[in-house]
Amino acid sequence: MPDTRTYLKLVFTTQEGGTHTISLRDPKSNLTSQEVSQVMQNIVSRNIILASSGELTGIKEAYISGTTVTEILP
Known about the structure:
The protein is α+β, with helices and mostly antiparallel strands. The chain has one helix and four strands.
């Protein structure tokens, strides 16, 4: 039976001109853009993640994505 999964995608710009995406499963339904922006800015300003294309330097975008998964093997 198909399973629908929802993700909050946080997309950052990186030091070497690339992007880095963090996917969080099952975000709360009443998230505000202000809450998401504050969390993303904290991640950038505290320099807590190092991507393969360098340090995170800014916020590119954030969005909610849905995926339908049909399991073939357990």
